[in-house]
Amino acid sequence: MANPVKSNYGIEIKNLYKIFGASAAAYVDHVKKGMTKTELNERYGHVLGLKNINISMPSGSIQVIMGLSGSGKSTLIRHINRLIDPTAGEVIVGGVDVVKMNKRELRDFRRHQTAMVFQKFALLPHRTVLDNTVYGLEVQGVPRAKQVDAAMHWIERVGLKGFEKRYPNQLSGGMQQRVGLARALANDAPILLMDEAYSALDPLIRMDMQSVLLDLQKEIRKTIVFITHDLDEALRLGDRIAILRDGEIIQQGTSQDIVLRPADDYIANFVKEVNRGRVIHVETVMSPLGSGGPAQAIMVPAGTKLDAAARKLMQSKQSEIVVVDSKGNSLGRLSLAQITSAMVTPAAREEQAAGIELAPVI
Amino acid sequence: MDWLSKFPNMNDEALTALKKAIDDGFRAFTRSYGDGIEEFFEPLQYFLVQCERFMTGTPWPIILLLIAAIAWFASRSWKIVLGCVATLLLIGYFGMWADTMRTISMIFVCTVLAIAIGIPIGIAMSLSNRLQSIVNPVLDIMQTMPSFVYLIPVVMLLGIGKVPGLIAVVIYAIPPIIRLTNLGIRLVDKDVLEAADAFGSSGWQRLKNVQMPLALPTIMAGINQTIMMALAMVVIASMIGVQGLGQPVLKAIANQYFTLGVFNGFAIVGIAIIFDRVSQAYGRRLQKHREVIHG
Ligand SMILES: Nc1ncnc2c1ncn2[C@@H]1O[C@H](COP(=O)(O)OP(=O)(O)O)[C@@H](O)[C@H]1O
Ligand SMILES: [Mg+2]
């Protein structure tokens, strides 16, 4: 994760509000003073889309935005390339406020700084895979030979070599979304916006596409904003995760933060179903080295997940692992018992979560 | 109780005066601007004459081959091509070749003109709700007005001949293409449009790359309807001097020549079927890759 970052296109969202309705601007103050989504809808017939969003997305990393259907995820991501205009607030990309751009600046910004992948693929049905992939470059006015070169490169990278001449409706959903991804990547923009890009895909294909994205990201190091309603997907992909509910961010942090320290019962309830061994890193739960560490211990690099560490430990027949950083310095130690207890959901939280589920019944 | 059995209309003298005033006004307008307007339509006249000369002057086997080739490229179906050739041969054998060629050339020019005028109007309508609410009632009137009524002002303005006929036909036949262009563009998948915007398309790029191609099958349906309506109107326009299959029909009605009327009627049906099948097959071929399939 410490590789040099390709660009400085971080995204900074500040005090963002979005209200849907004819006289949206008039109600921002009401919302700022604490009017709820339901109240705004019932009394004034306006829909509160987003409320006081503040996120800082560092460049070159994957920011996941997670939330249930209707929580405002699509609305939020569309503010980054201003497919939706905010009611109030700032969206600063690479130091420039997207909200203040005029029509022409906005068009150039969309052409060169952002690319987007859509839940329903949104391919041009009358164009072949190749002609879909070149779309962004065509709009930019790049010469055709260059368009085709770039497109062929990305078509190959997403695993569609040999399908260039097919039409979207001749491809499966997974393959169509590969075209969507190739189209976005061919644009070579520093920011990649993915709105539930994988939600329409079957679970196995989805896993596959997640791997494709993670592999590519090692090389392209773009600022990726990835929307999902699936916590497992969020934890697998996100360097940072923000959780959205009814248009408000209720927690943001790393996957470790979310799983180990859920901000409220709502999130705890989600998190309890997570396979913790696959999410929690060894360094998150290790104990200090102390004096006179174990004579024989196996070394495990920081960032290893608990289940991988447990597997190593079982195979090595040792009793403890030592966590080391990338330079080989020891950071801490971890026993099998510690690993096991961290992998099991804490009892208190289990009951708490169960209590939430029962609450409406009582 | 007289006013119950007879509608209390405005008095007959006033009514006559009103009609006379309007007619006189229009006639005065014609007298002062008629020549200018005629000049304006000169290029149209030229186009029409050239087209007709080509269709009637070229040896018939070449025309037959040409029509067969167009049918093949549009439909890629041997059945349709054979149907076209057989129909035309039959028409020729019964002595209606020249009139049929005149009608086809007239329909061709009318359709080209209707497309050239109708599609831009349809596009403009799809971009503006206000324009749509203005144009739609006008189209309603144009479609319900008895077609003969169009002939009167056109004849007053331009006299009898090909060009006034052409104008009457185009006015009568243009509504479907305007309506369906507008509809087709408005029905374009919002997700695909959003994608085009997200990649920074300009308005023109949106229209050219997304809206027009995706609306094309609907627009083709409009063109098909326009052709059919033009064909129907061409017969009526023969009353004001448009040559072709309509004139024998008119003669047949006037003189009660039953067979003449039926033969020419069938020839019109024949070319209607040709136009219809070929343009529909072309529309279907366009549609082939267009359905958006998810999953
Ligand atoms: N154009 C709109 N007009 C009115 N309400 C809207 C509009 N777009 C979205 N909303 C509302 O905003 C909320 C968030 O929608 P969305 O961002 O699509 O959610 P998500 O993508 O998380 O499912 C929903 O309550 C939705 O009904
Ligand atoms: Mg959504």
From TrEMBL, chain A:
Its EC number is 7.6.2.9. It is found in: Cell inner membrane. Residues 286-351 form the CBS domain. GO terms for biological process: amino acid transport; glycine betaine transport; response to osmotic stress. SUPFAM superfamilies: CBS-domain pair, P-loop containing nucleoside triphosphate hydrolases. The keyword Nucleotide-binding applies. One of its GO terms (molecular function) is ATP binding. It catalyses: a quaternary ammonium(out) + ATP + H2O = a quaternary ammonium(in) + ADP + phosphate + H(+). Its main location: membrane. Transmembrane segments: none annotated. It is a peripheral membrane protein. Pfam families: ABC_tran (PF00005). InterPro entries: AAA+_ATPase (IPR003593), ABC_osmolyte_uptake_ATP-bind (IPR051921), ABC_transporter-like_ATP-bd (IPR003439), ABC_transporter-like_CS (IPR017871), CBS_dom (IPR000644), CBS_dom_sf (IPR046342), Gly-betaine_transp_ATP-bd (IPR005892), P-loop_NTPase (IPR027417). SMART domains: AAA. Belongs to the ABC transporter superfamily. The complex is probably composed of two ATP-binding proteins, two transmembrane proteins and a solute-binding protein. The complex is probably composed of two ATP-binding proteins (TmoW), two transmembrane proteins (TmoV) and a solute-binding protein (TmoX). This is Quaternary amine transport ATP-binding protein.
TrEMBL record, chain B:
One of its GO terms (biological process) is glycine betaine transport. Keywords: Cell membrane, Membrane, Transmembrane, Transmembrane helix, Transport. GO terms for cellular component: ATP-binding cassette (ABC) transporter complex. The keyword Membrane applies. Belongs to the binding-protein-dependent transport system permease family. Gene3D superfamilies: MetI-like. It is a multi-pass membrane protein. Its main location: membrane. It comes from the Bacteria. The chain crosses the membrane at residues 54-74, 80-98, 105-128, 148-174, 214-237, 257-275. The keyword Cell inner membrane does not apply. Residues 100-279 form the ABC transmembrane type-1 domain. It is found in: Cell membrane. This is ABC transporter permease. CDD domains: TM_PBP2. It comes from Microvirga vignae. One of its GO terms (molecular function) is amine transmembrane transporter activity. PROSITE patterns: ABC_TM1 (PS50928).
